Each structure stands twice: as C-alpha cells, then as structure tokens.
Amino acid sequence: MKFLYRVDEVAEILSMSKRSVYYLLDQGELEGHNDSPGKRGLRVTGESILRYVERYKIRVEGISDEAFHRPVRVRKVISKGVE
3-class secondary structure for the chain? Predict the structure, then answer.
C-alpha cells in the first residue's frame, strides 16, 4: 500500500465518487495532506483509508467464510428448438 493517494484513486478504492471522498475529508473521516494549497496536490493518507474501512466493516450473520470458497454448482440449461 502506498503512503499517499490522489482523490481519484481513493474514490476508486472505496467505490465512491470523488465528491464523496472530499466530503469524508471535510468530515474528518479521512486524513488529507496538501503540500501545495490551491493547487492539485491534495493527497489522502493510506493509513486513514485503512482506518475508515476497518471502522465500517461489518460481519454478516449466517454467512461463514466457507460460503465464499464452496464450488459453484452449474445447472445445465436445455433449450428446445422451435418447430
């Protein structure tokens, strides 16, 4: 993981819009760093991204870890021709 990320990279990582990332920065949910204010230098710390993900991680009841590793059964689809 990198130390600093551009806003568009954070948006892609978190599957949200850039506007949402700016909102999270404004609310203090993510930490930013800008070495050249007024220019396009705003970066989000990788550590704050990890903390954000951990803070909102949930465990879905009734789904075990094995459920994600079971082989998928494939149904055979039989199509009937039109006569």
Answer: CCCEEEHHHHHHHCCCCHHHHHHHHHHCCCCEEECCCCCCCEEEEHHHHHHHHHHCCCCCCCCCHHHHCCCCCCCCCCCCCCC
